[in-house]
Design brief:
The complex is a heterodimer of chains A (170) and B (541).
Chain A (H helix, E strand, L loop, with lengths): L1 H7 L5 H12 L6 H12 L4 H11 L3 H10 L11 E6 L2 H5 L2 H12 L12 E6 L11 E3 L2 E3 L4 H17 L3
Parallel strand pairs in A: 1-2
Antiparallel strand pairs in A: 1-3, 3-4
Helix pairs in contact in A: 2-3, 2-4, 7-8
Chain B lengths: L4 H14 L2 E6 L2 H5 L2 H14 L6 E6 L11 E3 L4 E4 L6 H6 L9 E3 L4 H4 L17 H6 L4 H9 L2 H11 L11 H10 L6 E6 L8 H8 L1 H15 L3 E6 L4 H16 L15 E6 L9 H8 L23 E5 H13 L1 H5 L9 E8 L5 E6 L4 H8 L9 E6 L5 E4 L9 H6 L8 E6 L4 H15 L5 H18 L6 H16 L3 H5 L2 H27 L4
Helix pairs in contact in B: 7-11, 7-14, 8-9, 8-11, 10-11, 10-12, 11-14, 18-19, 18-22, 19-20, 20-22
Classes of the chains: A alpha+beta (170), B alpha/beta (541).
């Protein structure tokens, strides 16, 4: 198992890093979710080989870990795009036209919500509520929250990002 | 040696005294999204360039409430509030130090939006820098904790909370003192206090703003709860979607531990208490007590039947009490100002204030805190400034996916747990969504039901199957393919869900449908009678 996992992850260090997470949270009862958060925060999603390794480190069956992973919306099992576009679909945003914004973004990027573009540059998600209801409708692109959004405003921002990425030769 | 609160307070007040001009910049999530952090940097640079850095302070603060016109900057010494501030305005705002303020867009702070509110939970929000514990102490912070440890027995504390009449702000309104008493009386050495910061209700951001603006208040409230109930450990369960709240709580816990307000022998008393943060992962059902406990244990957030209640067997099988963020935010003021003072605010059975997130088609979207007993009309029209864009008011939705809609004719109802329940809605956690004449009630009901169907854990069939079937019927109606008998079917399934579901999510999921059927039945009938043609007209077909 150890050999295979390190081969799958050529960058290596996975076991070391899992060891670190386990040291940081592992003393606490019920630490699994906190460790999964840490992995996703570093890796962008929860790769299967990490789950296998974590299962060994914590002594929790793989099925139990997946039971948790698939229950919570927050955890991603596949790689996300470099830039994550989250359209808030909370009530306040919905009432103020979030559905039109989502449609505009989906059309612009040519993918549906929950999907990633072929070049892995963008990923679209909808959120339940990001708590920015005072400035609804809100859209989050990576760590930036854009309030009082319109489809045009978001597409303009997406085009800026595309131009920047193009400029970097990606 | 216990930390000397007076000394920290005196030093901090003396420091603030020396500053000639303080500019408080809102760093709540709303204003931050309009780059208020960049404004703070720029203003600091302007003061430096003018050589007045020592006299002027740029202070990051939490939410001031008027999110609609953010970013907000407040020049406290002259009591001026600037709205929609842009970087280009800052030079002119800095000029206001030496003249009658006229730079930037100035908001009238004598308006009803500010005058009709009463701040108890949010008293520090927008005033103090949430990243500096000294400012919290300067405003009386941690004095309540010291008082209970020095002067009160755990029983006294519980008695005070009971006498204040405080009830849970998470929605159900259970008397807080009674809950504390249940935990205090539970046997066992290990007990837990949990702060529920899993604000999953879409359209609500009260708890988020409290945690971001005044994290120490929650920590102090939890420590007092720990002392009163005999618990040594607390958990704050926060949504992972609130990274700023998580960060500020982390910093606050570290600061409080360093000064000895958390840890062993707090204020040299025989009381130790520690707090751990736990992150949610995007499951609405985890706001339910037993599901939240399962989630902290690192499991799926499946609710479990009660009894046993958490105070009997909760986290890791130990007695546990769960209080909402806003509930805990009331504790310090009740201890400092007394149960009688608190009980003098509000109605006979609903005491104190309530924070509401005013959203939707209302002019002043944002966060407001009002005494219980204020009417919905006052909140929406006087404080909220009425419906935006000159449209006509149609209804207000309270309580999120578990609540219901309230039409115009009931707007003069004074807010209390009982009065809202009597109207077929609930107080809920405090979301207040205003809808105008153009909003379709059937669509809103469908929106909430879709939410509950997506969020159902799937464990019990009334919720899993009932919700899905209701949603299918609603989709049929809104496409203009409904039959008149469908309305009875909706009500029948709703009754079954209410009676037979395992947890609060399923028991209340049908409320938005039931209350729209009660007050806006005609809109459903229009879809049914008008058929596909009508649905197309309404752009739903």
């Amino acid at each position: 198992m150890d050999r295979t996992t390190s081969e799958i992850n050529p960058s290596g260090g996975m076991e070391n890093r899992i060891g670190k997470y386990v040291d940081r949270f592992g003393q606490e009862e019920g630490c699994l979710i906190m460790i999964l958060h840490a992995i996703q925060s570093d890796e962008g999603y929860i790769p299967r080989e990490w789950v296998l390794e974590l299962s060994l480190a914590l002594g929790i069956p793989v099925a139990r870990i997946y039971e948790v992973l698939t229950f919570y919306h927050f955890f991603k099992l596949t790689p996300q795009g470099k830039h994550n576009v989250v359209v808030c679909m909370g009530t306040a945003c919905y009432l103020k036209g979030a559905a039109d914004i989502l449609k505009g973004v989906e059309e612009n990027l040519g993918i549906k919500s929950g999907e990633t573009t072929a070049d892995r540059l963008f990923h679209i998600d909808v959120a339940r509520c990001i708590g920015a209801c005072g400035i609804a409708p809100a859209v989050k692109i990576d760590d930036e929250v854009i309030g009082k959004a319109t489809a045009e405003k978001i597409i303009e921002r997406l085009n800026q990002i595309k131009a920047l990425e193009g400029g970097n030769g990606n | 040696m216990a930390t000397n609160l007076e000394q920290i307070k005196t030093e901090e007040l003396a420091r603030q005294e020396k500053i000639r001009a303080t500019f408080k910049i809102c760093m709540g999530s709303g204003c931050l999204s309009s780059k208020s952090d960049a404004l703070a940097e720029k203003l600091t640079a302007i003061f430096a360039a003018r050589g007045i850095s020592n006299d002027c302070e740029v202070k990051p603060v939490g939410c001031r409430g008027l999110c609609a016109v953010g970013p907000l900057v407040r020049y406290t010494d002259k009591d001026v509030l600037y709205s929609e501030v842009k970087e280009a305005d800052l030079e002119s705002i800095a000029d206001d130090i030496s003249r009658t303020p006229c730079g930037g867009k100035i908001v009238n702070t004598n308006s009803n939006f500010f005058k009709k509110q009463q701040k108890v939970v949010l008293d520090n929000a927008g005033s103090i820098n949430p990243l500096r514990i000294e400012e919290y102490i300067a405003f009386g912070g941690y004095f309540a904790l010291r008082k209970v440890l020095a002067e009160m027995s755990p029983g006294d504390v519980i008695e005070t909370i009971s006498r204040s009449g405080l009830r849970g702000r998470g929605g159900a309104g259970f008397p807080t003192g009674t809950k504390w008493k249940l935990l205090a009386e539970a046997s066992g050495d290990e007990k837990y206090v949990i702060c529920n910061g899993d604000e999953g209700d879409p359209g609500a951001f009260m708890d988020r703003s409290i945690m971001e603006a005044d994290p120490h208040k929650i920590i102090e409230g939890m420590a007092i709860a720990g002392y009163a109930t005999g618990s040594k450990k607390g958990y704050i369960y926060v949504r992972a979607e609130y990274p700023l709240a998580v960060k500020r709580l982390e910093i606050a816990i570290e600061q409080a531990t360093k000064l000895g307000f958390l840890g062993k022998n707090i204020f040299d008393a025989n009381f130790s208490f520690e707090i751990k943060l736990r992150l949610g992962a995007g499951a609405f059902v985890c706001g339910e007590e037993t599901a939240l406990i399962a989630s902290i244990e690192g499991k799926r957030g499946n609710p479990s039947p009660r009894p046993p209640f958490p105070t009997q067997s909760g986290l890791f099988g130990k007695p546990t009490m769960i209080n909402n963020v806003e509930t805990l935010g009331n504790i310090t003021r009740i201890i400092r100002d007394g149960a009688e003072w608190f009980a003098s605010i509000g109605t006979e059975k609903s005491k104190g204030t309530k924070v509401f997130a005013l959203t939707g088609h209302v002019a002043n979207t944002g966060l407001v805190e009002v005494p219980m007993g204020m009417t919905l009309r006052e909140i929406i029209f006087d404080i909220g400034g009425g419906v935006a864009n000159g449209k006509k008011f149609k209804a207000v939705q309270t309580g999120g996916p578990s609540g219901g809609v309230i039409p115009e004719e009931h707007l003069d109802t004074p807010i209390s747990y009982e009065s809202l329940a009597a109207l077929g809605s609930i107080m809920g956690s405090g979301g207040m969504l205003v809808m105008d004449e153009d909003d379709c009630m059937v669509d809103v009901a469908k929106f909430y039901l879709q939410f509950c169907v997506d969020e159902s854990c799937g464990q019990c069939s009334p919720c899993r199957i009932g919700g899905y079937q209701m949603l299918k019927i609603l989709e049929k109606i809104i496409k203009g393919r409904g039959e008149i008998g469908d309305l009875d079917k909706l009500e029948k399934i709703a009754r079954a869900m209410k009676t037979a579901s395992l947890c609060g999510l399923g028991q209340t999921a049908a409320n938005p449908v039931l209350s729209t059927l009660k007050y806006f039945r005609q809109e459903y009938i229009s879809y049914i009678e008008g058929g596909v043609k009508y649905a197309r007209q309404m752009k739903r077909g």
